[in-house]
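Batch 3, record 17
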Amino acid sequence: MILVVDDEQDICRILKFNLELNGFEALTASSAEEALSLDLSRFELVLLDVMMGGISGFELARQMRANPKTKDIPVIFLTAKDTESDLVEGFRAGADDYIAKPFSVREVMLRVKAVLRRTSRRVSGTLDYESMSLDLDSKTVTVDGKQVPFTRTEFEILHLLLSNPGRVYSRQDILKIVWRDDVLVLDRTVDVNITRIRKKIAPYSRCIATRSGYGYFFQP
Amino acid sequence: MILVVDDEQDICRILKFNLELNGFEALTASSAEEALSLDLSRFELVLLDVMMGGISGFELARQMRANPKTKDIPVIFLTAKDTESDLVEGFRAGADDYIAKPFSVREVMLRVKAVLRRTSRRVSGTLDYESMSLDLDSKTVTVDGKQVPFTRTEFEILHLLLSNPGRVYSRQDILKIVWRDDVLVLDRTVDVNITRIRKKIAPYSRCIATRSGYGYFFQP
DNA sequence: CCGAAATATTACGATTGTATTACATTTGAC
DNA sequence: GTCAAATGTAATACAATCGTAATATTTCGG
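Prediction for the assembled complex:
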């Protein structure tokens, strides 16, 4: 789900329409205040206008960064201003990208996809939960000090879930991120892999939780 | 120290700012000519725009490869062009990676880290594991006090794997690091060389481990 | 509690990925 | 140029992985 925040209604409409055309879900808000009234943690990405009455886009982004629940959500700024100080301020506020108005819709879509593709999955180091550890360099999983053999697919799924504990990923989300674009696979395949992962991380099976009707998530 | 070469001032500024935010030192140049006026040998990595007035990024990379002092400095190309032939020319000119514009800043940072991690190999001294020793100066391998004849390719691969025990290197990683940039070789070639290495280090064969779907790594 | 829908589990065959061998081509020393 | 070593490719054998379908179990809404 993508959130568009802009005080120009037309821009909100155009972006929402095109995002949906590209297979994304989208919601709009016409001010930072309206955005703040929403549960921001459920968005995967925020497209954010800088110049708005009331709270500015920069300020909203800063507030998002300050909140643990939203600090990792990527933000792309939309702005007519493109002077150096604004760019710097934008990135200081935590921009993942920057698009100057007037923009082409096509360019926005490209950048959205580019940012989402890399969203919040670390590529190096380890992810830990209690005595379970996932090493991104050696691509190994350790439970209670014992190394557990994981296949590539299983590893990638656990990596994804563990990257955002508590966040629910639909089967489609998981398919989009873990599987390559060109392979076509059934939703049910995810279930099977979840079962395999649960079996392998035995003591923590219940940490891979199911949200019936929605998908899966890692439950600390 | 990382050098950013791009004729768009904004891009230079954004990248410099974010590199510094990520703990790197960075310098910028707005043309290949300006870059050449610097002492390139002190940089660990160069982010290089392809399309620039005057000397192109490709040409600058070629000149760097021709100079023994700079030939091993990794280069990441930034480019709006993304057709296959450009990719081929890029890698021929010595690219370690390739980022198409528009890019997300987060992605650039990830790739910078990835390239630096890949290329951080010691060049002198010895690498030891139990009774196996790899001498980087004489380029010889010794197992149980006996010198084992290694070919150049085999030596380089073992060197790489032994540089980061436990870290998984994909076949593409290995190809990029061990083979010359202008040589085009199949992934499967790596398999064959791994087999040859395993045979030669007999007692430690199983230390060269396979991570199916990912690549190979040295297992202490 | 009941039925329907969603999820879990299992087994198995197809697919993909890896190992090994043999062979052809290239390289380099003499 | 010749020979031997080096090295990439292709062919084949082998093994692991992964997706599907069939079946069991759980969850959800009333």
